[in-house]
Structure formats: structure tokens, C-alpha cells
Design goal:
single chain, alpha+beta, 5-stranded antiparallel beta sheet, two-stranded antiparallel sheet, 10 helices, 48% helix
């Protein structure tokens, strides 16, 4: 009896669906896009936080009249300083034709408490490394410092017909060299004494047509009057050191100024009695 022929059952192979492959690729693309969006958001947030932390400004040296920029990072919520101060190139350039007319200390910087007798040179030396604020800004506001008034005055420009802008004070100093020789050291002394608000009135003297001797006398009278007022105000506030500095500088302009002489006497430290 013949054996029955076995029934051949074909194997059914799994066939990959095109739809599932496309779906997998779509999920990968979706994850990639989400990752890129997240990274982009982190970069935006990080940049925003950095600029919110950044505090920058400009400083002015009252002795040398150099300027320099600075910045540091501070948390905007706590004001905790994240990074130390970094100084940069000067954003304001003051003409060397002006700075060469101010006084330069003839000795290395000295301690302001030094026992050396008072002199303008000592005053300049004691403040040689000091920097005063011109302006400071963060993401919220820009604030001006005390030295801004002088920086703005020094940056005044004028135009020559058919020529490039020139510094106003370069031209004035060149036209009036003897006036400039006494004017700029006086401005420097007010800056060193940190009375920047009194400087604009001094600049007004340059607007009046006077002879050289008249200008010198008007400047001396103005400086003596301003410094006597400052010395008296400091003495009233029991700040004898500041009062003495104001008065002694004032006496270099008017040696017989009665109020200044009285303030010097009152502000001098008490001498110990002889035993």
C-alpha cells in the first residue's frame, strides 16, 4: 500500500511593515528635536542669567587721569559676587595734551597717615593708586559715579571748519598756555580731594575773557572760597583730617585767608602737654 505523501506546509516568514520603521524613525527625530529645543532653551536661560549677573563700569584715577573699564559677576537676587573684578582697556581716552599739564607726584605713593609734612606732592602720592567711579551698570539700570562730571567735561569736543573733531580743551590750552598751567592742577586737586561737584564752577572761569593775571587771581579766590567752605563743613562733622587737607590746599592759593588759618588751627591734632 503506497505511503501517503506528506502535506507540505509552507513557512510563513514575518515581513517587516514599512509603517513601523517609519514610526521608529519619527520617534528618533522627535527625541532629537526635543533635545535640541531643550539645549537651545538652556543656552538662552544661561545667557540671560549671565547678563543678569554682569555688572560693568568705568573708573577714573584722580591723580593720573587715566581711565579703565571693569566688570564682575554677581547674583542678581542675592548680590553675591560670583567672579572677581576684571579690568579692561580704557573706554574713555583723555588727551595727553591735557594730562601733561597736571601735576605728577615726584615720589612713590605714600601712606595718607604718613608723618611727612603736608604738601601737594604728598597729597597726590597718597592718592596715586585710587580709582573713583565714573559709572556702573547692570541689567536694571546705569548709575553715575562722582567722577562722571569731570570725565564728561574732559571729553568736550569742537569742530573745526572742514576738519575732524578736536578736543575742546586741547584747543583752549594751546591758546591760553599760562592759564592752562594753573587751571589744570587746580582741577586735579579738587578731584583728589573728592569734591567733583565743585569742578564745573571752576570750568566756568574759562568762559570769561580775562587777562592772565586776572584769571590767576579769580582762580585763587575761587579755590580759597570753595576749600574754606569744604574745610568748615568737614570740621563741623568732626572730620579733622579732611578739614585739614581742604584748608592746607586752600592756603596754597591764599596764604593770608583768615578763615582757612583758623580752620587749620582748630583741625590740628591736640599736642600733648609737656610733662
Amino acid at each position: 500500500m503506497p505511503h501517503p505523501t506528506p502535506l507540505l506546509i509552507p513557512k510563513i516568514c514575518a515581513v517587516s511593515r514599512p509603517e513601523s520603521s517609519i514610526q521608529l524613525k519619527g520617534q528618533r527625530v522627535s527625541h532629537l528635536v526635543k533635545g535640541l529645543i531643550g539645549l537651545f532653551c538652556l543656552i538662552i536661560l544661561g545667557s540671560a542669567y549671565y547678563w543678569a549677573c554682569r555688572v560693568q563700569g568705568v573708573e577714573f584715577n584722580p591723580v593720573t587721569w587715566q581711565t579703565r573699564g571693569f566688570y564682575f559677576l554677581a547674583d542678581p537676587l542675592t548680590n553675591y559676587q560670583i567672579r572677581g573684578v576684571v579690568h579692561s582697556a580704557p573706554p574713555i581716552s583723555i588727551s595727553s595734551d591735557v594730562t601733561k599739564l597736571i601735576a605728577t607726584p615726584k615720589s612713590p605713593p605714600v601712606d595718607s597717615e604718613s608723618a611727612e609734612p603736608f604738601s601737594i606732592n604728598r597729597l597726590l602720592s597718597a592718592n596715586y593708586n585710587r580709582w573713583d567711579l565714573v559709572e556702573i551698570s547692570d541689567y536694571r539700570r546705569t548709575s553715575s559715579g562722582p567722577a562722571q562730571v569731570l570725565a564728561l567735561l574732559l571729553m568736550q569736543r569742537q569742530r573745526r571748519t572742514g576738519g575732524a573733531p578736536v578736543e575742546h580743551w586741547n584747543a583752549w590750552s594751546a591758546q591760553h598756555p599760562k592759564k592752562a598751567a594753573v587751571f589744570w592742577p587746580a582741577v586735579q586737586q579738587l578731584a583728589v580731594l573728592q569734591v567733583y561737584s565743585d569742578i564745573p564752577a571752576l570750568f566756568e572761569l574759562t568762559l570769561v575773557e580775562t587777562t592772565e593775571s586776572e584769571f590767576r587771581q579769580a582762580l585763587s579766590d575761587h579755590m580759597a572760597t570753595v576749600l574754606a567752605g569744604r574745610a568748615q563743613a568737614s570740621l563741623d562733622q568732626q572730620d579733622r583730617a579732611a578739614s585739614l587737607n581742604f584748608a592746607l590746599v586752600g592756603l596754597t592759593y591764599s596764604a593770608e585767608h583768615q578763615q582757612l588759618l583758623e580752620i587749620v588751627e582748630a583741625a590740628q591734632p591736640a599736642r600733648p602737654l609737656n610733662q
